[in-house]
Amino acid sequence: MRIKLYDIAHSRAGDKGNTLTLSLIPYNADDYPLLCTRVTAEAVSRHLEYIVKGEITRYELPNLPALQFVCQQALTGGVTTSLTMDTHGKSLSYALLEMWVDTELMDTE
Amino acid sequence: MKQHIRIGCGAGFSGDRLEPALILVQQGQLDYLVLECLAERTIALAQKRKRQDPALGYDPLLERRIESLLPHLLEKKVRLITNMGAANPLAAAQKIVEIAQRLKLSVTVAAVTGDDVFNLLSGNETALETGKSLTDSGALVSANAYLGTDAILPSLATNADIIITGRCADPSLFVSPLVHEFGWSLDDSNQIGQGTVIGHLLECAGQLTGGYFVDPGRKDVPDMAHLGHPFADVSPDGTAIFSKVAGTGGTLTAATAKEQLLYEVMDPSRYITPDVIADFTQVRLEEIGSDQVCATGGRGQNRPNTLKVSVGYEAGFIGEGEISYAGSNALGRAQLAGSIIQERLQDRFTDLRIDYIGSTSVHRTNFGHYPDPYEIRLRVAGRAASLQQAALVGEEVEALYTNGPAGGGGARKYIHEVVGIVSTLMDRQKITASITVLKS
Questions:
Q1: Which residues, in sequence order, are bridge partners of residue B439?
Q2: Residue B331 domain flag
Q3: Which residue of B has its CA nearest to A94?
Q4: Based on the domain organization, do B199 and B237 belong to the same domain?
Q5: Fewer Cβ atoms within 10 A, N terminus or C terminus of chain A?
Q6: Contacting B residues, span 333-372, partner chain A, CB-CB under 8 Å
Q7: In this structure, is residue B433 part of a structural domain?
């Protein structure tokens, strides 16, 4: 089954210069392994190809549990000089939550 | 030593609501109130105001905030720590003394200075964002170092009712009263790391209590119109219980705390402040009651030898123009308008942006949603070296009234002067903080 991240997780975006941070927090801790498997840095990079121009690094926080994505060159220059509407990139948490993931984990995974 | 210290945060940015701080002071039984009012770029803008008038350069809402809070702070014996000094903590302290005199109140204010390092820069330092020298970005207008707890502590040792700073690290506004009250060693990295977790959770005020969290039907939060701001009860070992004043709106749960813990954090195992390289990876957030979350497990490593310096530079102007199309084929007419502007301006602007508000303007894509919107607002923005060039954008959009697609309405034009921000690192030994105490 394919579901949107919006249905199982929440997120908050933050900005540091031209770098975007995106948390991804499952409503149910049982979904954390699925997120770890499906929502890789590469998958997010493909999903956000129109938005993030640089490298994406993923950090795992099993204690919370949550994932944190740090996206370089994602804010068209950063808050003061960007020509975009949302210069902070504050709305981009909901761009991440638009991502579809397959919930069926293969035995080999 | 007290059993615990209660610190509230009554503002998470310069434009934040005024009343949550007042409620915290009146009903929150606080020991300390922190107002965090200084964003990355606001200090550069404040430096420009100071340049035009040496008595200005502090937070534009300082007067209103202090007037409403001061009688209650003094009555309830709540000490205020705030970075509302922005580019001019001394003038801010003077203004607070003036307000106290007008209200016939006795107040002592300590101003923390030393963050302004503009005169220590050559301009040849490397900008962290570009890898090039600072002056390559543009003419420099300001440079402010992020001071830490060590700079704020001497002011807490005075009997000042209000401590007012310029640029300092946001969590340090909260770590300093904890170090002052509990006698924590600044060399105890794990203790200061936990203090930094507390500060980071509180620093955005309403973002911990349901503000910027609520999503109706999915993440419901009650009574957002009266959102309460948070406080923490901190024990001498650093254990912190976060809550809010009973009867205020909002909610405080593990979920709101998780979003805030990771907000603007790059590497969660290395959150760098002037006080410590904090490690958030072992933090535990437990709901222990209604609107009560306990945070433990913050750790850290030795503080860095350099301080981050935020440098403002002149980045020219941005011109903008907007016009709306509505009804059948609204998007088609807006797109034609956009292509007309593109053709007319592309040779005169290296950086031009055309947005269709209602379709792709916010995320630069719509992930395959292609609705037929009833209305679309065309927005054009261009970066320009001069005011005159920036004005062209709005003029061209306005001219679409009689030279563009059918039914365009509600044209607006704007011009902004832009201060850009880059960062560099400076040896902390070069930076000397000091305090000035004023009385009414």
A1: B108
A2: yes
A3: B363
A4: yes
A5: N
A6: 351-353, 355, 357, 361-365, 367
A7: yes
Q: pLDDT tens, position by position, for chain B (440 residues)?
A: 788 999 999 999 999 999 999 999 999 999 999 999 998 778 878 988 898 899 999 999 999 999 999 999 999 999 999 999 999 999 999 999 999 999 999 999 999 999 999 999 999 999 998 899 999 999 999 999 999 999 999 999 999 999 999 999 999 999 999 999 999 999 999 999 999 999 999 999 999 999 999 999 999 999 999 999 999 999 999 999 999 999 999 999 999 999 999 999 999 999 999 999 999 999 999 999 999 999 999 999 999 999 999 999 999 999 999 999 999 999 999 999 999 999 999 999 989 999 999 988 888 888 888 778 999 999 999 999 999 999 999 999 999 999 999 999 999 999 999 989 999 999 999 999 999 999 99
Domain membership of residue B138 (yes or no) is no
Say whether A12 and B260 touch across the interface (CB within 8 A): yes
Model pLDDT, residue A106? 58
Both tokens assigned to B131? 């890898």
Q: Is residue B123 part of a domain?
A: no
Q: How far apart are CA B281 and CA A52, in angstroms?
A: 25
Residue range(s) defining the domain that contains residue B252: 5-116+146-309+429-439
Residues B340 and B381 in one domain: yes
Chain A hits for B38, Cβ within 8 Å: none
B421 in reach of chain A (CB within 8 A) = yes
Q: Which CATH number does the domain housing residue A57 bear?
A: 3.30.70
Whether residues B288 and B325 fall in one domain: no
- If we measure between CA atoms, which residue out of B312, B339, B298, B242 comes closest to residue B46? B312
Is there a domain that residue A66 lies in? yes
Structural domains of chain A, count: 1
Do A57 and B265 contact (CB within 8 A), yes or no? no
Tokens 């720590």 — which residue? Answer: B81
Task: Mutate one of A22, A49, A76, A85 to test the B interface: name it (highest B CB count within 10 A).
Answer: A85
> Which residues in chain A are closer than 8 Å to B129, comparing Cβ atoms?
17-18, 78
- Average of per-residue pLDDT values in chain A: 92
How many beta-carbon pairs below 8 A join chains A and B? 114
Domain identity same for B269 and B318: no
Domain tally for chain B? 2
B182 in the same domain as B305: yes
Task: Give the DSSP per-residue string, A5-70.
Answer: GGGTEE--EEEETTEEEEEEEESSGGGHHHHHHHS-HHHHHHHTTTT--S-EEEEEETTTTEEEEE
Which residue is listed with tokens 């207008």? B141
Structural domain range at position A94? 2-76+85-99
- The pLDDT value recorded for residue B432 is 97
Query: Cβ of B260 and A80 within 8 Å?
Result: no
| Residue among A15, A36, A14, A16 nearest A25 (CA) | A36
One domain, residues B71 and B192: yes
Q: Which residues fall within 8 angstroms of residue A88, CB to CB, at 6 or more apart?
A: A13, A15, A75, A79
Residue B282 Cα, gap to closest chain A Cα (Å): 6
Q: Residue A4: its chain B contacts at CB < 8 A? A: none
Residue A24 within any structural domain of the chain: yes
B 307-326: CB under 8 A from A: 315, 318
Which chain B residues contact residue A91 at CB under 8 A? 362-363
Q: What is the pTM of this model?
A: 0.95
B138 and chain A in contact, CB less than 8 A: no
Q: Identify the closest residue of chain B to A75 by CA–CA distance.
A: B363
Same domain, B99 and B171: yes
Flag if B264 and A15 touch (Cβ within 8 Å): yes
Distance (Å, rounded) from C-alpha B81 to C-alpha B171? 12
Asked whether the predicted pLDDT for residue A17 surpasses 90, the reply is no
Tell me: do B249 and B380 sit in the same domain.
no
